[in-house]
Amino acid sequence: MASSTSDLSNEEIAALRRQNRGAPIKFLLPLIYAPVLPLIRIAFRRNPVVRDRLFTAVLAGALLHGGYLVTDLYDSESK
Questions:
Q1: Quick one: three-class SS letters along 2-58?
Q2: pLDDT value of residue 15
Q3: Burial annotation 5-15 (CB, 10 A radius, 16+ → b, else e)
Q4: What's the pTM?
């Protein structure tokens, strides 16, 4: 009986290790936002209307994503 419970826990540990292989993409997105914002300013220098709208949209998306991560973090801590 003791060997079956230790085998079960070893299988669960192995499953958890397989599940956590890659870095979660939701935490890596700021590495994309950071260089994109200045590049938008540089690339659309001659078209200020598009530049400002695109910059605002990307910045709003980044802030919403950050808010989502924070609320998700607080939600998991409260459970």
A1: HHHHHHHHHHHHHHHHHHCCCCCHHHHCHHHHHHHHHHHHHHCCCCHHHHHHHHHHH
A2: 65
A3: eeeeeeeeeee
A4: 0.63
